[in-house]
Structure of CbrC family protein:
Amino acid sequence: MSASLPFFRYHPDPLASGSIRAASETCACCKGNRGWIYTATFYTAQDVSGRLCPWCIADGSAAERFAGEFTDAYGLDGVSEEVLHEVTRRTPGFHAWQDPHWLVHCQDAAAFVGEVGYAELAAHPEALDQLRADMRTAGWHDESQLEHFLVNLGEGATAMLFRCTVCGTYLAYADAS
Ligand SMILES: [Zn+2]
Ligand SMILES: [Zn+2]
């Protein structure tokens, strides 16, 4: 069934991430009931009476109609205007404690894979190394405290895992409540 869903380059499996779910629900934008509904963030100053279908996200009509964005542009540095537009206005966001944001690699936005704990993160050592380096830069100077935080990811704090759309490298950022 999911084969009929629109494809999102920067969020290729929104069913796995829980951003899109099967639901018999009327879309606030096209008023259609397509059997799938978007469940995560949408930032708009307007009143939106209901949730949105994946098709109105994919073609940009929901973002245009409600002058909204699914994701903040924060972190999307060094990408083209087209990519910025596609990620913020034509890509499903995701559930996070803090405002969700996208990671960049190879001067392109990375594809969101999902929320993961330590075990899944450790399956991609390059993502774990990069997160460790980012956290040191962010001020985590106590190595044992840092490792304690990392191995406990999945309980309270989680990691948001991405995969570079160009070179395939995995990368992540930590999300805490
Ligand atoms: Zn719709
Ligand atoms: Zn890359």
Q: What stands out?
A: The chain is about 25% helix and 15% strand. The radius of gyration is 17 Å. Residues 46 and 66 are 6 Å apart (CA to CA).
